[in-house]
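Please fill in the sequence for the structure shown.

STRUCTURE ENCODING:
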């Protein structure tokens, strides 16, 4: 595979073709853990890979240089998908300084025995000369962890952006324009929704910091390097950071004996209008990763569950708990569901929606056992109201 990002700047990461689970994130197209070698009068390695792939990383480095000659090991982020191999790499690079911010140093010390590591602590505005090129650093807290930062090479207008702008996308060609771009964009969106969404305000701050940089190339820690579509991914991040809504209504549900499913179908039928993307999502036929991705830019979300043991169906609770952690903002919600004799599962959904500060279209629509024609009519009406609100939200 061609690994050259720029002359004497090479990708030396790992392509994980077969991974399908990344701490519960479904990685349908695999993943990559990107590390980059910058060779100048001095040499720097930008990030590492997951611990099991340390030997492959070292083999990739040896293709260009003896690891013992590396001067700097930059750690932009201490999460183990990038820093897992650090102990092995530090051992193989005895003269290298570990370059990171102070929070990252502390985090690394909670994963590894760092007592003998030679740290060079940097922060926003710090720079390091490699010779003809500089590395400059910008702290980007919570994109994705508190210690995260990005590294910029002004002479190349190149940003090593860490998790930001990443995608779980295994590739045999390094650049965005060498891959099916809509697949790459879909994975970038999925990545944002499932990894970055809780930190929208921090993303906005990071984007502001990056806006001051002249950027031609974005080299993230996952997935392809952006060279032809930088403007597009930056624009998408601006929208995703505020969960900018599209005219989209989701009807997400789980059902025990088809009563809640009938209500869901009626809501989706009501929401089916010109210009509105009205989607019916059965939780059992989908997964957490896909649902979160759909939620990111949906204006309105109806969420339904049958009542089971005085609460919602188990997978409904799992999806809501996951979404609550991701904090999708600015949604208009509609709880609904069927029940027999106990407290309605729809009430639990309402509580989750309120905790996420979603606006509720109306009180929950509930049906004891099979929904009557009157209840189904109320579902269709509520679906139509959601569609109207979705169209309004995009004007
Ligand atoms: Fe790819 Fe937050 O690690």
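FILLED IN BY: designer on duty
SEQUENCE:
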């Amino acid at each position: 595979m061609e690994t050259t990002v720029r002359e004497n700047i090479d990708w030396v990461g790992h392509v994980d073709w077969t991974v399908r689970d990344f701490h519960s994130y479904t990685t349908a197209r695999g993943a990559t853990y990107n590390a980059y070698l910058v060779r100048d009068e001095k040499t720097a390695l930008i990030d590492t890979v997951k611990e099991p792939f340390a030997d492959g990383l070292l083999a990739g480095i040896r293709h260009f240089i003896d690891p013992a000659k590396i001067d700097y090991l930059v750690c932009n982020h201490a999460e183990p998908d990038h820093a897992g191999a650090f102990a092995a790499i530090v051992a193989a690079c005895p003269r290298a300084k570990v370059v990171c911010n102070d929070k990252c140093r502390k985090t690394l010390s909670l994963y590894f025995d760092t007592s003998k590591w030679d740290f060079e602590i940097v922060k926003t505005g710090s720079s390091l000369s490699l010779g003809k090129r500089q590395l400059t650093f910008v702290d980007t807290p919570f994109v994705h962890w508190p210690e995260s930062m990005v590294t910029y090479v002004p002479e190349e207008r190149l940003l090593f952006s860490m998790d930001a702008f990443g995608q779980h996308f295994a590739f045999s060609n390094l650049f965005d324009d060498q891959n099916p771009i809509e697949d790459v964009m879909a994975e970038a969106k999925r990545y944002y929704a499932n990894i970055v969404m809780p930190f929208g305000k921090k993303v906005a701050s990071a984007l502001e910091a990056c806006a001051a940089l002249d950027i031609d190339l974005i080299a993230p820690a996952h997935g392809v390097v952006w060279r032809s579509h930088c403007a597009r991914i930056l624009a998408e991040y601006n929208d995703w950071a505020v969960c900018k809504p599209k005219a989209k209504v989701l009807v997400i549900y789980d059902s025990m004996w088809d009563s809640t499913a009938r209500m869901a179908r009626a809501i989706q039928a009501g929401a089916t209008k010109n210009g509105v993307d009205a989607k019916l999502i059965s939780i059992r036929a989908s997964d957490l990763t896909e649902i979160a991705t759909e939620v990111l830019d949906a204006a309105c979300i109806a969420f339904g569950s049958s009542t089971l043991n005085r609460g919602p169906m188990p997978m409904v609770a799992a999806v809501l708990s996951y979404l609550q952690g991701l904090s999708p903002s600015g949604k208009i919600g509609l709880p609904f569901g069927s029940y027999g004799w106990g407290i309605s599962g729809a009430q639990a959904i309402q509580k989750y929606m309120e905790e996420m500060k979603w606006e509720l279209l109306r009180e929950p629509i509930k049906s004891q056992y099979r929904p009557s024609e009157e209840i189904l009519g109320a579902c269709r009406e509520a679906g139509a109201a959601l569609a109207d609100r979705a169209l309004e939200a995009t004007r």
